[in-house]
C-alpha cells in the first residue's frame, strides 16, 4: 500500500494548477445516462473516484472513450471524456460497486427518468457520518416513482414515466438536489425544488443539462424550476475548477508560508473559506489567472468557524482548516454541522503534537509553537489531506499511511506540492 513521506518546514513558492472538480465531474458523468447522444466532458480530473464511476456507468451500457490521455505538461486542462449511453443495457447498480462510492447512488434518478425502472444498491456505511438517503427517495416518490427496498436495493418503478411536482427539501442536501434535478429534467410537466443546495457543482450540472436541452430556471439559487422535456441531446461541457482542491492548497500555503498562484481557481466559488484565510493573516488576491495566496513573516491568527451549506464554510475544508489552526497564535473553535462524525483527523493531528479538545460537534484547537513529524493514518479523503498540511508544518518526517483515500479526490497531489518546494514523496508498495 502506498505511503506519503513529508519532511516539514519548507515554504511553498510557485504555481499550482487546479484540476476539474471531483464533485461536479461525478454527477456530470451520471448525466450522460439521460441521453442516447454523446456527452463530451472536458477538464475531467484523473481520480480513483472518477475511474470507479466509469466502471459503474459502463455496467449500465455507457460507452466511454477518453481523448488524448494526459502525458504531463498540460497544466490544469484535464482529460476529455466522451460518454454515450445509446442504450441502457442494465438498470441495476450492484452493491459491490455502489458500496465503494456513494455518489454512484445518484444514478437512480436518471435511470428511472429514462428507463422507467431502476434497481440501485443502498450505499451502506460511511466513515464521516450515517448519511441517509431519505430525501432522495422522498423526492423521487413525489415525482411519482414507486419505491421499495428489497434485499438492500432500492427498487424504483415509474411505468408511466415521472411527473413533475413541488418538492420542498426539509434539509439542504447536495446529493438529493442532484438526484431530483437529474430526474426532473425528463419528467412530464413542471418540477419546483425548494431549499435546493446551492453548491457551485450543482449549478455546473444544471448548466450542462441546459446545454443538453433541459429547461431549468433559478440555476445557482435555492429554488430550481424545471420544465420537463421528452428527450435530451448530446452536449459539450467543461467541468468547473475544484474549489475544495483550491481551498486545500490555499490552506497549505497559509500553513507552510510562501507565495503560490492557484491557477484556474475561481474565488466566487469559495469566498467564505478565503475570507477565513484572510482573517487568519494570509493575503488572498484574485487575479485573471486564478488566486494568488501569500503568507510571509506574519503568524497565523486563530478563527472561529462553523461549517454550513454553500455559501457558508464547506465541511470539505473543515479538516484542512483544523490542521492550519494547530499552529495559530491562540485558540480557535471549529464546529461541524453537516456530518456528525467528521473528526477522525483529530487524533492523528494530536499525534503530530496538536492540542485539540472535542466537545460534541465543537473542536477547540489551541495553537502550539511546534508540531513534530510522526507516522499517521489517513481515514477519509479530506482527513488525509489535513495530515499532509500537518506534515508540511511539522518538524522532521511525517509518514502518511493508507493514502488511497487521497487518490480518490486529489490529482497528482505530491507532484503539485513538490514543484512548489515541499519535501513530499510517494513510497509505492
Ligand atoms: C456531497 O455529499 C459531497 N459529495 C460531499 O463531499 C460533501 O461533504 C457534502 O455534499 C456536503 O457538502 C459529493 O459531491 C460526491 P449531503 P452528499 O446530501 O450529497 C443529510 C468529499 O469529501 N442527508 O449534502 O452525500 C446528510 O446526512 C465528499 O468530497 C439526509 O439527512 O451530502 C448530511 O448530514 C464527502 N438525508 C447532510 O444532509 C438525505 O437523504 C448533507 O449531506 C441526504 C442527506
What does this protein structure show overall?
With 429 residues, this protein is an alpha/beta fold. The chain folds into two domains: 3-18 and 241-427, UDP-n-acetylglucosamine1-carboxyvinyl-transferase, Chain (Alpha-beta prism); 22-230, Enolpyruvate transferase domain (UDP-n-acetylglucosamine1-carboxyvinyl-transferase, Chain, Alpha-beta prism), CATH 3.65.10.10. The protein has 14 helices and 24 strands. α1 runs parallel beside α7 and α8 packs parallel to α10. The longest helix is centred in the middle third of the chain and has 14 residues, at 243-256. Mean pLDDT is 95; it is low at 71-75. The structure holds ligand EPZ.
Quick structural overview:
This protein has helices spanning 22-31, 48-60, 95-98, 108-115, 134-142, 174-184, 200-211, 243-256, 271-279, 318-325, 345-351, 381-393, 404-407, 413-418; strands at 3-7, 12-17, 38-44, 63-67, 79-84, 92-93, 117-121, 146-150, 153-157, 166-168, 190-194, 215-217, 223-227, 235-238, 258-263, 283-287, 290-295, 304-306, 331-335, 355-359, 362-366, 375-377, 397-401, 423-427. The protein has 429 residues and is α/β, with parallel strands linked by helices.
Amino acid at each position: 500500500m502506498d505511503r506519503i513521506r513529508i519532511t516539514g518546514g519548507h515554504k511553498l513558492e510557485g504555481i499550482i494548477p487546479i484540476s476539474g472538480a471531483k464533485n461536479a465531474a461525478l454527477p456530470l458523468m451520471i448525466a450522460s445516462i439521460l441521453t442516447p447522444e454523446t456527452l463530451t466532458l472536458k477538464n475531467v480530473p484523473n481520480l480513483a473516484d472518477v475511474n470507479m464511476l466509469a466502471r459503474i456507468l459502463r455496467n449500465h451500457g455507457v460507452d466511454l472513450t477518453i481523448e488524448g490521455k494526459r502525458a504531463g505538461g498540460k497544466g490544469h486542462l484535464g482529460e476529455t471524456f466522451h460518454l454515450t449511453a445509446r442504450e441502457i443495457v442494465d438498470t441495476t447498480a450492484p452493491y459491490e460497486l455502489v458500496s465503494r462510492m456513494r455518489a454512484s447512488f445518484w444514478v437512480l434518478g436518471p435511470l428511472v427518468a429514462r428507463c422507467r425502472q431502476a434497481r440501485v444498491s443502498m450505499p451502506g456505511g460511511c466513515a464521516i457520518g450515517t448519511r441517509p438517503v431519505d430525501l432522495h427517495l422522498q423526492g423521487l416518490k413525489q415525482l411519482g416513482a414507486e419505491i421499495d427496498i428489497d434485499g438492500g436495493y432500492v427498487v424504483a418503478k415509474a411505468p408511466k414515466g415521472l411527473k413533475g411536482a413541488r418538492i420542498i427539501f426539509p434539509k439542504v442536501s447536495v446529493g438529493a438536489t442532484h438526484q431530483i434535478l437529474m430526474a426532473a429534467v425528463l419528467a412530464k410537466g413542471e418540477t419546483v425544488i425548494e431549499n435546493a443546495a446551492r453548491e457551485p457543482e450543482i449549478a455546473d450540472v444544471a448548466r450542462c443539462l441546459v446545454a443538453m436541452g433541459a429547461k431549468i430556471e433559478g440555476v445557482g439559487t435555492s429554488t430550481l424550476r424545471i420544465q420537463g422535456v421528452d428527450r435530451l441531446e448530446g452536449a459539450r461541457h467543461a467541468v468547473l475548477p475544484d474549489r475544495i482542491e483550491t481551498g486545500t492548497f490555499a490552506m497549505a500555503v497559509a500553513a507552510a508560508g510562501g507565495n503560490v498562484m492557484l491557477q484556474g481557481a475561481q474565488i466566487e466559488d469559495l469566498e467564505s473559506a478565503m475570507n477565513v484565510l484572510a482573517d487568519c493573516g494570509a493575503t488572498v488576491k484574485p487575479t485573471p489567472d486564478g488566486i494568488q495566496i501569500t503568507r510571509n513573516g506574519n503568524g497565523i491568527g486563530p478563527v472561529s468557524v462553523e461549517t454550513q451549506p454553500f455559501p457558508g464554510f464547506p465541511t470539505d475544508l473543515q479538516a484542512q482548516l483544523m490542521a492550519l489552526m494547530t499552529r495559530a497564535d491562540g485558540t480557535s473553535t471549529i464546529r461541524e454541522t453537516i456530518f456528525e462524525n467528521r473528526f477522525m483527523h483529530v487524533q492523528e493531528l494530536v499525534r503530530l503534537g496538536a492540542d485539540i479538545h472535542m466537545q460534541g460537534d465543537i473542536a477547540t484547537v489551541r495553537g502550539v509553537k511546534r508540531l513534530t513529524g510522526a507516522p499517521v493514518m489517513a481515514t477519509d479523503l479530506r482527513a488525509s489531506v489535513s495530515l499532509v498540511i500537518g506534515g508540511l508544518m511539522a518538524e522532521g518526517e511525517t509518514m502518511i499511511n493508507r493514502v488511497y483515500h487521497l487518490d480518490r479526490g486529489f490529482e497528482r497531489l505530491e507532484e503539485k506540492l513538490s514543484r512548489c518546494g515541499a519535501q513530499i514523496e510517494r513510497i509505492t508498495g
